[in-house]
Structure formats: C-alpha cells, structure tokens
C-alpha cells in the first residue's frame, strides 16, 4: 500500500508540472509510469494473476480493485494487457468494469486497445438494445484515431436502430467522434440531419446537443424540425429540454422579427395579461398593431410555458431566459413567479438565479416588484447570497417602497456580518442617489452611522457620504465639519482619504477647519497610507490656491515631505503639484490655470448596479455568471429587420396550401396550434390525425377548412383554458371508459396497445407501409417509451376516436403517406 | 480544436481538502486543477461562501457543497451553470438513495457502484440516465444480504436480469413492479418561512409546501389525486410524471407514479392569504455598556395553533463573537452553548399552555470588548402534526389501470421553515 501511495504522489506531481501548459491532456507517459511501477511489481502481479484466473469471482475482485485505483487517481495502466483479455467475459459485471478501464486507458495503449474492437463490433449486433447501446458507448469513447472508420460505420448503423435508446447513444457518439476527428464533420452532419428528423423524445435532446457541438451554425437543419421540436419539448427528458430551449432561443432570434417594437414600456399591461392569456384578447390586441407575430414564434413561447413548472431549476431558468430574450415584453412577467420559487432551493441554485434576477431587475423592475419581500435577507444566508439579494432590493427600490426598504436596511446595517453591513451602506447610498425624495433621509441615516462603533461601518459610510455630497455639495457644511473631526479617530485609509478629498473640494465652505486639518495631517504625513498621502498633497494644493496666506508654509512643508517619499507615485505627484502651484520663473503657462485645474467642478460619480454590464450576455449562461465571455459562448444575434422566409419551416407541401391561406389572423394561428397540440400527444396517431386534417383540407377546399376551424377552436379551448366544459366532459367519458377496457386489458397500457394495434392493423391492411408497421409491432414498448404517452392517452383517446370515426379513410391514407415520407 | 462537452471531470473533496474520488468522462484532467478551487475556498469565510462557479486559466469549475462534501466538476466550454449544479445534486441524491447517506465513507465503501452509477448517469459529459428507478434497473443498490451473498458466491450487483433488454415504457417507472401489500401514502408537508421583527409583527411570511409520496403499487397504476381547495396552490412545480394539462384544466394531479419514494409536487401558497404564525416569542436580550455581562431572557408561547400541539421546538441563536459563555436556566428542555461557534441551541420540546417554556440567565462577554451592536436573531424550529397550516386538504385518490384495492393514506404536517425572529 505504501508504495502505491508513493506512485500516486509522483503522478500528481508530474501532472502539476504539465498543468500550466496543458491541463487538459496532462497524461503521464506510459514509459514513465512503467518505471515507477517497477518497484511495485509484486502488488500488481497478484492482480494480474487474479485476472488470468479461471474463476469469475477472482477476476471480478481484481477488476473492482482496479476500478478503485482509477477512482483514486492511481495509475493502473500497466495492467492493460491483462484486463483487455476479459473484454469478452460472459459475466456482465466484469465486462462493465473492463469497459470502465478501457475508456480510461485506451488512449494510452492504442495498439492493445485494438484487440477489444471486434468484441464491440459483435456486441453492436446483439439483440438486446442495452448491450448494443453500451457497446456503442464504449467503442465511441475509445479515443484511438485508427478506429475512426469503424466508429463512423457504427454510428451510422445505430442511428437507424429500431431502439430509440440506441439512437440516443448514437447522437452522443457523434460528438465524441467529432472531437476525435473533426475531418468527419460532413458525414456526421448527415447523421445529425437524420437524427433531427427522429420523432422519439428520447433522442431529441441528445441530437440537439450534438448539433450544438458539431454545427451550431447550420440553422437550416432546424427549419424543418422546428415545429416538431417545439411540440415534443414537454415530453423530452429534463436535460434535453434545457439544451433544446437554448438552441431554439438562438434560432428564434435569427428567424423572427422583434416583438418588442410596439410594447416597449408597457409594463402596466403585464398584470392583466398574466391573469388571462386567452387567445381572444391577444388577437384583438394584436389586430390594432401593425406587428403580427409569426405563429411559429408564438408556438415556441406557448409550448415552453408549462416547463416553468418543472422541478428542475435548469429547465425553469432556460424557459425564463427564453421568455426574456424572445417573448413580447408584456409576457415576460410570468417568469418572475417561477424564478422566485427557485430561491427555496440550495445555495448554489440561489446564487445563479439571484444573479440572473439582478440583471433582469435593472431593466424591468416591474416584474419582480410583487416579490420584493422574497428578497429580504436572513441572518443565516451565506454572505454571497445576502449581497446578491441586497443588489436586487436596490434595483427594485422606488418612491413607493423605499421607506419600507430603508427600515429593512436598518436591520442589515447592524448585522454581525460586517462585509454585508458595508454592502448595505453602499446600497443606501445608491438609493439616495437614485431616489431624490429620500436623499436627505439617507444622508442623515449615514451620518448617524458615523458614530457607529464598528470601524468598517464608519469607513464605508464616509466613502458613501463623500459620493453623495459630491452630488449636492452646497448645503452640507455641517456634515463636512463633522467628518473633519472623524479624522482624529478613524484609521481606515479609504475613509481618511475620502474625508481629506471632501474637505479639499469644499475648503472654501469650511475656511476655518480646512487649514487646521492640513496642519494635523502634515504632522502625521509620514505614517499615513499612500492613498491618504496623495489626498494630503491634494488638500495642500487646493488650500494653497485658495488661502495661501495661512497655508503656504504648511503646504510647502508637506511638499517637501512628499519629495522624499519612498513611493514614486507620491514623489511624482509632489513634483507635479509644486510646478503647477508654486510660481517660479520656469513655471509654464499652465500655472495660471492651476486653480481651475484643481478646483474644477467634478462630475458626481454614477452609483450604478454592478450588474449593468452583464446585460449583453444571454441569461442563464456561464458567461453571464462569470461576466466574461466563456469559450464556446454563442452570441445571441439581434432580431433581423425583415423575417427570413417563414415557409422553410413547413414540412409538407400540402400543409402549405392550407396554412398559408389565412382568412384573418384567427385562422392563421389556430390551424397550426391544433396541428401541434395533437402531435404533442402521440407520435404516430398525432401524425395521422394532423395529417388527415391537412389532407382533407386540401381535398375539400375552403369549406372543409372552415368547418375544421370550428372544431379546432373547441378543442383548443379545452386544451388551453382552465375548467372548460369540453375537457371535463371528456374526462368523465374517459373515466367511464375505464371499466369497459378493464375487461380486455388490465391497464391503461393495455388499453393503449389495443388502440395501437388497431391503427397499425388498419394501416397494414390499407396501406403499404411495411416499414412503419413492422417497427411498430417489433418494438411496441419502445415506441411507447415516451414519457407522457400513456398519460395523455386517456384524454386524447376520445378525440382520436372522433377523428377516426369521421375521417377513417383519410387517416389511413395519411398514415401511409407519412411512412412513405420516412421510408 | 477545443474539446467541447458539458461535464469533463468530477472530483469529490472532503472537508479537510482530500480529493478522494475522481472520474473523467474524456481525457484525464490533472487533480491539480483543484488547486484553484482550494484557493477560492481559502479566500471564502466559510464553506457556504465558496463561489459555485470559478474560472481558471483553462477550465471552469462548478461545484456544490452537500453533506460536508464538495462535488467539483470541470467544465471547458459555455454551459448553463444551473444545468451542472442540478446534475451534481442529482448525483448526490442518487448516492443518498443508494447508500442511505452521501458521505465519504459510504462512497469509498461502494466505489465500484459509484463508478458504475457515474458511468450510467453521464455519457460524454451529457446526462444519460438520472431517474433513480431506471438506475436501479441497471445497477442494483447494495444491501447487507446481497453483499454477504456476493462475497460467498462471487456474484455481483449488476443483475442477471439485465439482458432482458426491456426498458420500461415510462422513464421514471420500473416495469414489472410487484407487491403483496399495495399501498400509497402521501405526506403533505408545509413549511412556514417567516421573518418576525423586534416588536413581534410579521415582516414577511409565506407557506411553502411539498407533497412527498411513498407508492408501493404493483403493475402500472394510474393515479389521480384531487384537492378540496386546489386554488390555494399558487405556484406549483411538478415531478415529470404529472400530466400538466390535466392540472391546467381541472386542477387534478393525474400521474403514473414512480415506484417508491419521490416528491410529487412542491408548491407555494398564494401570498394573498394571510399566514397564521403558530408561535410567538417574548424576548429581552441586553448587553450592558462597559460591563462584561448581559441578560438573556426568552419565552415561547402558542399563537394560532388551530388547537393542535406544537412540538419539536428548537431555538438556535448565533450569539455575537464577544460572547464568552452563557449561564442560563431553562424552565423546560435543555440547552447547549458552543463557545467556539457561539451557537446557542435550546431544545424545548412541546408547548404546554399552562406553563410556557422560557430560558433566562446571564451572558458573559469578553471584557474590554465593545458591546455587540445588534442582538442576535432567533431561529426557531417547530412541528405541528396533522395540520396543513394553509388549510390544504386532499379530497380523494383514485386509481385506474389496476384491479386491486390499494391501501391509501394522507398525512399532514406543518413545520417551521426559515423562521427567524429578529430581536
């Protein structure tokens, strides 16, 4: 054991040396590792023997110990030959651990790693989807350039696999191959294109991830899949949702025109909208304006809304940033409630969410104002959370709530956490500067703090008062005098410097005190901090110019001290000031203007939120959190002036005929809505359902279309609005159904299968879609694996029944046509 | 070429700064990258203040602090930080779920399972399987019995059941669940977050609730849970199993549950409703000027407790740094004062209205030091059984899709959340 730990130390040491240059690939050269291990032969010898043993239990034991070594960061590379032999082991656990080992060391032992490849190739053909998937995963994780063609082939095959789980793994493998060999980009894009068409919710997130890594600029690949992605979104797993939402945000910013032109400052609208986002109102609202939102734009905004209720903070944040960046300003308000909810989460989530709220609250106070109290600070919050909350409270402060806030701040100022107390004082300063009504109140409060017992509090108050006085210097002689007295007691350099500066600036207003202060300072000059020394020099110069009779000698004395100071900044300043103010024959034209130079009106500092400069980053990103552009950050583009051709998103020509013959806005929007709210529920049936619609639309012309519109309307409302009769009735019916179906099949699931087989049966008979139906019967369970399938089945079943009753023929036709499009 | 991927590597670090586990999803990143983390940790006043996101010359480090452990992940490119943070917490949750605790010892004892889990949870830096039910199908959690059997027979945690290759129809539920006793329990747990000011008036109060479920039902049950007063729920977040549209249209929670324990919903009760505050605190804490002692006197009493007993009361006070020691007399319960952390904990128990619990006595201050500027806040914990303080009530639970009659139960409890009294 001891020798082992020695090796471990060595390794990390070696790593450190390589670190600065190349952290990422700080691998230890195998030769070196061998050398180190030679002293350790005995130890690993027994592992080798165990691996050669005929007993699985011994092998497993050995592998477990080896994985333990890897986990601790110890080097186990010399065992490679012994381990790789077991890659074909029948025992699943041994196999899995061998995989773990291979992925870790294959890069270092490329030749030997090749021995394992044929095993994976065989496993790729295994009837078990889990084995196929894991084989692909390991094969694509072995970073050995020579197998690139094999990987490419495997990915291509896997992307056509019947199992969505395997296809998901194929999407992951794309990224791995791409980073191993960027040359493969074109071929990989083909696979991405194919997988983007995939309808499984399991695949969607992973392939969009691959898209983002390999070809984020190929926005054209998204067009045809845009609507599908919007509709699948609710059912995609949470991690995929985040990736898709971020991608679609970027997409929307390139494809739609800005919805912000008209309703820029209409914050009042928020409330009413938020209460009732019924389509009706929206429509009438919109008709007044020349701007009409692209239905696809609306689709995205609408379909992401439910995700604000996700349990996953990353999803909620993703939707929030989407609303922030692409929804009309009047609709952004709904995100605040969900973001505030996240503040109940752990400190890390709070930290990120508060940062984002801080940025948002600068631009849009209104949306967070109702939650003001949720940002109140608790003494148990970590300091970083406290200061962020304080930042938000400051941003939210206005005439109406400032008195409540100031009362709250009083508690904070007394906090035992002095860093936080200091931040509160800054905050009070900012409130005073921004809200003129309370400027005096704040100033008085701060002056009271000058007699606080804690030096940090006093110092911070001085600094803030200085800034405030600079804004309205005239009427505050008393405060300045008070601060002059503080010089005797206060020791914090910044505060001393601030007081000196203030007295210098206002030396004509406090003619009696200023020279006396200079006298005291001249005495203590040598022991002051550099910061303070500079201000003493400044004070001297200003007094010399305004009151040279009293202070000439004093100033010269100070200048002499400065001349021989150890700090060159101070010597510099001294020289400069002497030349400028003390008249002699060499002094140039400038000295005439010395007074103007020193006593010029200085612009008051702007007390701004430190979050102001983060606005340009997309919210929710790493770059926003760090306030630096992280590598790989994709800039959010500005809205285009003119929207690019929206028809690129149309999937079939038939729809085009229907969707783009709008007889008014209502019609234009509703068809697309129905179209998608259907397909959200169930891939196969929805496709047939929606397709049937468009089909019949094109068949029967305008009449058909308008009659459908009405039925759509009713369905829409049941979907979208609360407690609509339609859905209640439907549900009752569904409940009634249950006992009936129970007879045939015990579960909801069974009910579903039933339904499924009906459709697939009929399509078998009616259509020639062999591929579709075969895949359905073969992997029925897989097809159904999407999350909410079963869930919505109950609600949807009736609807579909209705459709299938009325449009039996067209439904089947379309099933056919749909599979043909895919075959 | 920049290697893009979400999570590159993960390091687990204990409180004394030892890196006791590392896992890389691609090329190996040297442990020394953690030095930047240690640097940030040193700068921070305490563990709670270590920034979750750190930028280093070649990487970004995103970390969480859970159960006295740091989970430090190495990132190379732009990624939503919450994505990583949520994932790391999910990893910690999974450890907790598998080993009963998320501790260094548990992780070290089960290092092979940990590795297998990490392998399944993340592929190429992107989350693959994070649902506990799916993971348990792939990797069996350790049990004492199994480890004994394993050590004798040499079999393992990865079940032989795996080759069936059947993934469940629903991502969060195992296929083929079977119980002899079918039960469904729901715990409605509400927490009162409040800030009470010096004078006893409420600065801020709100109710946050969760419904935790423990479902042991065979097959594929389809449940719907309805409330008497669903309008109380202002803001709700759901487990992915819940059908969003059913909720939107009918305010019914309709779902096919995961097997076992899970959080069904979290909610916030609308802020229009006044929050009943079940306890009040009378306090008088004072420090004398130029003297090395102070007085401390607090009394707790019931306020709006809806006729239920308030129990499990604990008061925690972070005393100012100048406090050396406290000599107090509790009328009820017991107290401790830690002179190092300056934390006073008073374990009160339950309130009996006849004799209100109080704690009084003297505070010894460091002599010569200025008296504390502010009195410390009191953090109060309590519990009220069989009461949801918001008044939320479950109406009924129906099950579809299975024939058997399950045993159903709902339990209510109200607790103090972040309940702080300023003095």
From TrEMBL, chain A:
Primary site of residence: membrane
Gene name for this UniProt entry: Ap3b1
Listed PANTHER family: ADAPTOR COMPLEX SUBUNIT BETA FAMILY MEMBER
Single GO BP term: intracellular protein transport
Gene3D superfamilies according to UniProt: Leucine-rich Repeat Variant
Annotated region described as Disordered, given as residue ranges: 268-289, 663-808
Compartments where found: Endomembrane system
GO cellular component: AP-3 adaptor complex; endomembrane system
Entry annotated with the keyword DNA repair: no
Topological relation to the membrane, as annotated: Peripheral membrane protein
InterPro entries (alphabetical): AP3_beta, AP3B1_Ser, AP_beta, ARM-like, ARM-type_fold, Clathrin/coatomer_adapt-like_N
Organism: Heterocephalus glaber (Naked mole rat)
Ranges of Acidic residues composition bias in the record: 678-723, 773-784
Protein name as it appears in the record: AP-3 complex subunit beta-1 isoform X3
Family: Belongs to the adaptor complexes large subunit family.
Compositional bias of kind Basic and acidic residues: 268-285, 666-677, 729-745, 785-805
Origin organism lineage: Eukaryota, Metazoa, Chordata, Craniata, Vertebrata
Residue ranges of every copy of the Clathrin/coatomer adaptor adaptin-like N-terminal domain listed in the record: 44-582
From TrEMBL, chain B:
CDD domains in the cross-refs: AP-3_Mu3A_Cterm, AP3_Mu_N
UniProt subcellular location: Cytoplasmic vesicle membrane; Golgi apparatus
Gene3D superfamilies: 3.30.450.60, Mu homology domain, subdomain B (2.60.40.1170)
A GO BP entry: vesicle-mediated transport
Keywords associated with the record: Cytoplasmic vesicle, Golgi apparatus, Membrane, Protein transport, Transport
Bilayer disposition of the protein: Peripheral membrane protein
InterPro entries per record: Adaptor_comp_med_subunit, AP2_Mu_C_sf, AP_mu_sigma_su, Clathrin_mu, Clathrin_mu_CS, Longin-like_dom_sf, MHD
UniProt superkingdom: Eukaryota
Pfam families linked: Adap_comp_sub, Clat_adaptor_s
Cellular component annotations (GO), alphabetically ordered: clathrin adaptor complex; cytoplasmic vesicle membrane; Golgi apparatus
Residue ranges of domain MHD in the record: 181-422
Family membership: Belongs to the adaptor complexes medium subunit family.
Protein name: AP-3 complex subunit mu-1 isoform X1
Source organism (scientific name): Heterocephalus glaber (Naked mole rat)
Gene: Ap3m1
């Amino acid at each position: 054991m001891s020798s082992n730990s020695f090796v471990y130390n060595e390794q990390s040491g070696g790593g450190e040396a390589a670190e600065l240059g190349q952290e990422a690939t700080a691998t230890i050269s195998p030769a070196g590792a061998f050398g180190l291990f030679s002293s350790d032969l005995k130890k690993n010898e027994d592992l080798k023997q165990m691996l050669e043993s005929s007993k699985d239990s011994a092998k497993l034991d050995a592998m477990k110990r080896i994985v333990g070594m890897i986990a601790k960061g110890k080097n186990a590379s010399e065992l490679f030959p012994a381990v790789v032999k077991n890659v074909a082991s029948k025992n699943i656990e041994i196999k899995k651990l061998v995989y773990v080992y291979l992925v870790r060391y294959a890069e270092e032992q490329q030749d030997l790693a090749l021995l394992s490849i044929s095993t994976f190739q065989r496993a790729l053909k295994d009837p078990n989807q889990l084995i196929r998937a894991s084989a692909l995963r390991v094969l694509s994780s072995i970073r050995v350039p020579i197998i690139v063609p094999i990987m490419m082939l495997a990915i291509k095959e896997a992307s056509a696999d019947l199992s969505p789980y395997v296809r998901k793994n194929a999407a992951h493998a794309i990224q791995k191959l791409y980073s191993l060999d960027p040359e493969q980009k074109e071929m990989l894009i083909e696979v991405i294109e194919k997988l983007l068409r995939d309808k499984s919710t399991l695949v969607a997130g992973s392939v969009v991830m691959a898209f983002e890594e390999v070809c984020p600029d190929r926005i054209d690949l998204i067009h045809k899949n845009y609507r599908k992605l919007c509709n699948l979104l609710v059912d995609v797993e949470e991690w995929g949702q985040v990736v898709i939402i971020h991608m679609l945000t970027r997409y929307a910013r390139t494809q739609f025109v800005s919805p912000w032109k008209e309703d820029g400052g209409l914050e009042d609208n928020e409330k009413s909208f938020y209460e009732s986002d019924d389509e009706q109102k929206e429509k009438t609202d919109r008709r007044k304006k020349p701007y009409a939102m692209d239905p696809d734009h609306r689709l995205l905004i609408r379909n992401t809304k439910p995700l604000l209720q996700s349990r996953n903070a990353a999803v909620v944040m993703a939707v929030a940033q989407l609303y922030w960046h692409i929804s009309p300003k009047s609709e952004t308000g709904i995100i605040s409630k969900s973001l505030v909810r996240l503040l109940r989460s752990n400190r890390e989530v709070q930290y990120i969410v508060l940062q984002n709220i801080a940025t948002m609250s600068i631009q849009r106070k209104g949306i967070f104002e109702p939650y003001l109290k949720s940002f109140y600070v608790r003494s148990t919050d970590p300091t970083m959370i406290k200061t962020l909350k304080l930042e938000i409270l400051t941003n939210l402060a206005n005439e109406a709530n400032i008195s409540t806030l100031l009362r709250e701040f009083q508690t904070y100022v007394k906090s035992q956490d002095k860093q936080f107390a200091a931040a509160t004082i800054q905050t009070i300063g900012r409130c005073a500067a921004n809200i003129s009504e309370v400027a005096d109140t704040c100033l008085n409060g701060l002056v009271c703090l000058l007699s606080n017992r804690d030096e940090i509090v006093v110092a911070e108050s001085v600094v803030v008062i200085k800034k405030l006085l600079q804004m309205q210097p005239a009427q505050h002689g008393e405060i300045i005098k008070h601060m002059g007295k503080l010089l005797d007691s206060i020791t914090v350099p910044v505060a001393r410097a601030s007081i000196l500066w203030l007295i210098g600036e206002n030396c004509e207003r406090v003619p009696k005190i200023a020279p006396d202060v200079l006298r005291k300072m001249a005495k203590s000059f040598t022991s002051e901090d550099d910061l303070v020394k500079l201000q003493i020099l400044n004070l001297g110069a200003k007094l010399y110019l305004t009151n040279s009779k009293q202070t000439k000698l004093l100033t010269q004395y100070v200048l002499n001290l400065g001349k021989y100071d150890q700090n060159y900044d101070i010597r510099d300043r001294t020289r400069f000031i002497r030349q400028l103010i003390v008249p002699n024959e060499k002094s140039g034209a400038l000295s005439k203007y010395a007074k103007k130079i020193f006593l010029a009106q200085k612009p008051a500092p702007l007390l701004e939120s430190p979050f102001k400069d983060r606005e340009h980053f997309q919210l929710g990103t790493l770059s926003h959190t760090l306030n630096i552009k992280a590598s790989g950050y994709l800039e959010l583009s500005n809205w285009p002036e003119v929207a690019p051709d929206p028809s690129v998103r149309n999937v079939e020509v038939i729809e085009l005929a229907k969707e783009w013959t709008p007889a008014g806005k209502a019609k234009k929007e509703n068809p697309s809505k129905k179209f998608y709210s259907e397909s959200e529920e169930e891939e196969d049936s929805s496709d047939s359902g929606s397709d049937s619609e468009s089909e019949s639309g094109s068949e029967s012309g305008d009449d058909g279309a308008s009659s459908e519109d009405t039925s759509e309307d009713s369905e829409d409302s049941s979907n979208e609005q609360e407690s609509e009769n339609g859905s209640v009735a439907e549900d009752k019916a569904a409940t009634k159904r249950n006992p009936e179906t129970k007879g045939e099949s015990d579960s909801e699931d069974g009910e579903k299968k039933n339904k499924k087989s009906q459709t697939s049966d009929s399509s078998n008979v009616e259509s020639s879609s062999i591929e579709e139906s075969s895949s359905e019967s073969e992997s029925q369970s897989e097809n159904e694996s999407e999350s909410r399938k079963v869930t919505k089945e109950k609600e949807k079943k009736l609807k579909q029944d209705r459709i299938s009753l009325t449009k039996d023929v067209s439904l089947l036709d379309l099933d056919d046509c749909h599979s043909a499009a895919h075959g | 070429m920049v290697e893009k991927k979400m999570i590159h590597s993960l390091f687990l670090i204990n409180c004394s700064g030892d890196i006791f586990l590392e896992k890389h999803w691609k090329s190996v990143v040297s442990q020394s990258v953690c030095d930047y983390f240690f640097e940030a940790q040193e700068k921070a006043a305490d563990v709670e203040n270590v920034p979750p996101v750190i930028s280093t010359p070649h990487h970004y480090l995103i970390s969480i602090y859970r159960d006295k452990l740091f989970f430090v992940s190495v990132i190379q490119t732009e990624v939503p930080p919450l994505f990583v943070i949520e994932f790391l917490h999910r990893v910690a949750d999974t450890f907790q779920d598998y080993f009963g605790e998320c501790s260094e010892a548990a992780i070290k004892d089960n290092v092979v399972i940990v590795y297998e889990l990490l392998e399944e949870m993340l592929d190429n830096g992107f989350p693959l399987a994070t649902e506990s039910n799916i993971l348990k199908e792939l990797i069996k959690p350790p049990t004492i019995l199994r480890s004994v059997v394993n050590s004798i027979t040499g079999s393992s945690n990865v079940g032989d059941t795996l080759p069936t290759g059947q993934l469940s129809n629903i991502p969060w539920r195992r296929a083929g669940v079977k119980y002899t006793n079918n039960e469904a329990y729901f715990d409605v747990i509400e927490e009162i977050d409040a800030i009470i000011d010096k004078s006893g008036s409420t600065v801020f109060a709100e109710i946050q609730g969760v419904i935790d479920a423990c479902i042991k039902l065979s097959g594929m049950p389809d449940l719907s849970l309805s409330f008497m007063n669903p309008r109380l729920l202002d803001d709700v977040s759901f487990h992915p199993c819940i059908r969003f549209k059913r909720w939107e249209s009918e305010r019914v929670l309709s779902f096919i549950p995961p097997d076992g324990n899970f959080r069904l919903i979290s909610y916030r009760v609308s802020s229009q409703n006044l929050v009943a505050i079940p306890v009040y605190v009378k306090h008088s804490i004072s420090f004398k000027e130029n003297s090395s002692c102070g007085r401390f006197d607090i009394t707790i009493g019931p306020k709006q407790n809806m006729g239920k007993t308030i129990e499990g009361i604990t008061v925690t006070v972070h005393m100012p740094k100048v406090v050396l020691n406290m000599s107090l007399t509790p009328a009820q319960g017991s107290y401790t004062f830690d002179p190092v952390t300056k934390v006073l904990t008073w374990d009160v128990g339950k309130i009996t209205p006849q004799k209100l619990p109080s704690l009084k006595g003297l505070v010894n201050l460091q002599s010569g030091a200025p008296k504390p500027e502010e009195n410390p806040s009191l953090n109060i914990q309590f519990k009220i059984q069989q009461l949801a303080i918001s008044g939320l009530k479950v109406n009924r639970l129906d099950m579809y899709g299975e024939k058997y009659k399950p045993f159903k139960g709902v339990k209510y409890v109200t607790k103090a959340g972040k309940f702080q009294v300023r003095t």
